[in-house]
Automatic annotation (TrEMBL):
Stated name of the protein: Histidine kinase
Superkingdom assignment: Bacteria
Matches recorded under PANTHER family: SENSOR HISTIDINE KINASE YPDA (PTHR34220:SF7)
Swiss-Prot/TrEMBL keywords: Cell membrane, Kinase, Membrane, Phosphoprotein, Transferase, Transmembrane, Transmembrane helix
Organism ancestry: Bacteria, Bacillati, Bacillota, Bacilli, Bacillales
Transmembrane segments: 7-30, 298-319
Domain HAMP: 317-369
Pfam families named among the record's database cross-references: HAMP (PF00672), His_kinase (PF06580)
Organism in which the protein naturally occurs: Neobacillus cucumis
Gene Ontology terms for molecular function: phosphorelay sensor kinase activity
Places the protein is found: Cell membrane
Gene Ontology CC annotations of this record: plasma membrane
Topology versus the membrane: Multi-pass membrane protein
Length: 597
């Protein structure tokens, strides 16, 4: 039972503290949603701008080799080779190549492959290498892929710069990571393949465009090609590698929130068709200020709540102290103290209650005294009635005398039956006592011996109980009514071949005693009605008196052991009748066994 003081605290929590914190959480959630929408809108605008700049930048890079078509001297090399062109001027060609190299600062290296002569040469730091015969160049994976495609160019993922012709102009110490663009040179009129121009581009320029999306060091950005390879990433360890599996699904959508991160992705077009620009922003970056405000409000709320609890505690103590004193007096009465002093001088509601409780106790004490005298008189009347009854010991002595006469006239069977009946009468007097399971079984065997004499040996029975169970204690006359039911509802109804079985086992903390037969049974509907009658409380409902013995056994077990104990019945799938007695092992066996011993 909760005290009034605890109820006051609970009311404060429900009507003051809880609404305050709910308001804080609501405001926090609403503000968080607005901030998220604002940041997402800003990020989308930034990504749109960065995407346009990236598309334009790569449009320029991809279109750079088209200058070759506007330079007759350079284009004739692809058409005729170095030796066959009658217009070949080495100085003019060298100047054209150097000019082509110097057109963009981010160009680190250019390779020219002439398909007619199967030769290639490179340009590095505005210096032209010697030509090298490379007939298998078109068999390289990237060149082969471009050669057999309808596309004019192919962009490879970033990789360390490569010395294509093993030229001396490329130092071994140069490990710059570059992006490679292969451009296919074709004869416009005949659509004949003339060669390949390969550009190695430094990442700095387009990395700067990507990094424009990053506002602080906790955010990150990725540029992913159509084959899910990282073309650029804030984390340089990811550049040139496949997209991590945990991000691959998320970047397919725009504005995806996964865990504690917000992932925005945008699909590019133009020369970067099907590429994706991805921005990853930790949630804590966006909502840092919002959380700080919420934490401040929560701390203020905790302080206000603490002061409120302190105030209500003082007030509730002053109000509830008289109620607690009155409650202790009532508890003392419950414990049996009927002379508790009450203060009937109070002028408030508590004083009014104490005055009326005092008057009520005086009336109760008078009533108890009167009832006590009536009870004593009733006991005396019962004693006198008992004295008028036949002394049971006289019956025992009389049965023993009859047994002696039977022996004298050489009738041992009669003597055995009389002795069995005597034992049963002596045992039945202990109907409200605790006995060993062994004693209950002996009584049942005695009872069954009389039934064997009565009905003959046409029916059979078995009793299987180990020594551990036989030494436990149970209320007397617990199993006997079930055995008696066997003859009443089974054997006497014509099931002469039925067998009676009694066995038991300890299942965890419960002793399970079973009495079953394979003769008469009942329908499922009758079983449900019987269960309802047995489990109905003694003072509730109405039930049939036909199976009152089963109900009495169940009620006795519950009364002695509690709700864990009881009686269970079943029909063994319509092939007989089973009664199980469930008795807690540790509840009363130990104490009752000591009393019996």
């Amino acid at each position: 039972m909760k005290s009034i003081q605890s109820r006051l605290f609970l009311m404060l929590l429900i009507f003051i503290i809880l609404p305050y914190f709910l308001t804080v959480f609501f405001i926090y959630g609403y503000t968080k949603k607005l901030v998220e929408q604002h940041e997402l809108e800003v990020s989308r605008n930034q990504m749109e701008k960065a995407s346009n700049e990236l598309e334009q930048y790569f449009e320029d890079l991809v279109g750079l080799p088209y200058v070759t078509y506007r330079n007759p001297d350079l284009f004739r090399i692809f058409e005729d080779g170095f030796q066959d062109s009658i217009y070949f001027n080495p100085i003019t060609v060298k100047n054209s190549i150097e000019t082509f190299y110097l057109m963009r600062n981010e160009i680190r290296q250019i390779r020219f492959y002439i398909d007619k002569s199967k030769e290639s040469f490179t340009v590095y730091n505005a210096m032209v290498s010697t030509r090298k015969y490379q007939p298998d160049l078109v068999k390289e994976s990237s060149i082969k892929k471009l050669y057999h495609s309808h596309s004019k160019y192919l962009i490879e993922p970033p990789h360390p710069i490569e010395n294509y012709n093993d030229a001396a102009i490329v130092p071994q110490s140069d490990n710059t990571v570059v992006l490679t663009i292969h451009h296919k040179v074709m004869d416009v009129l005949s659509n004949k393949f003339l060669g390949i121009i390969t550009l190695d581009i430094d990442l700095k320029t387009y990395a700067r465009l990507c990094n424009s999306l990053v506002q602080n060091d906790k955010e990150s950005v990725l540029l992913v090609n159509s084959e899910n390879q990282v073309m650029y990433a804030s984390d340089r360890h990811l550049i040139g590698k496949p997209v991590p599996t945990n991000l691959l699904t998320s970047i397919q959508q725009s504005g995806v929130k996964t865990g504690k991160e917000i992932i925005l992705s945008r699909t590019l077009s133009g020369p970067l068709r099907q590429w994706k620009l991805v921005k990853i922003t930790p949630e804590q970056v966006i909502f840092h200020d919002v959380r700080q405000t919420a934490y401040t409000n929560i701390l203020v709320g905790i302080g206000v709540g603490f002061l409120g609890l302190l105030m209500i505690g003082i007030i509730s103590y002053m109000i509830t102290r008289p109620i607690k004193l009155l409650s202790r007096k009532v508890q003392s009465i419950e414990a049996g103290n009927m002379d508790v002093p009450f203060n009937d001088n109070g002028q408030d509601e508590i004083g009014h209650l104490e005055k009326h409780i005092k008057e009520m106790m005086n009336r109760i004490n008078l009533h108890i005294a009167r009832e006590y005298k009536l009870e004593i008189e009733n006991r005396n009347n019962q004693l006198r009635a008992l004295k008028s009854q036949v002394n049971p010991h006289f019956l025992f002595n009389a049965l023993q005398t009859i047994g002696a006469v039977a022996l004298r006239f050489n009738s041992p069977n009669v003597y055995g039956l009389v002795t069995s009946l005597s034992k049963m009468m002596r045992y039945s007097i202990r109907a409200n006592q605790w006995v060993l399971v062994r004693e209950e079984v002996d009584y049942i065997k005695t009872y069954l011996s009389l039934q064997v004499e009565r009905f003959g040996n046409e029916w059979t029975y078995t009793i299987h109980l180990d020594e551990t169970i036989l030494d436990l204690t149970i209320p007397s006359m617990t199993l006997q009514p079930l055995v008696e039911n066997f003859f009443k509802h089974c054997y006497e109804e014509g099931f002469y071949d039925a067998q009676l079985n009694i066995y038991g086992e300890i299942q965890g903390e419960l002793l399970c005693l079973v009495v079953e037969n394979n003769g008469s049974s009942i329908t499922f509907e009758e079983l449900q009605i019987l269960r309802k009658n047995i489990y109905t409380k003694p003072n509730e409902g109405s039930y049939s008196a036909e199976h009152i013995g089963l109900k009495n056994i169940h009620d006795r077990l519950v009364l002695n052991y509690g709700i864990k104990a009881g009686l269970e019945i079943d029909t063994n799938q319509g092939q007989g009748f089973i009664v199980r007695l469930m008795i807690p092992v540790e509840s009363k066996f130990a104490s009752q066994k000591l009393e019996i011993m």
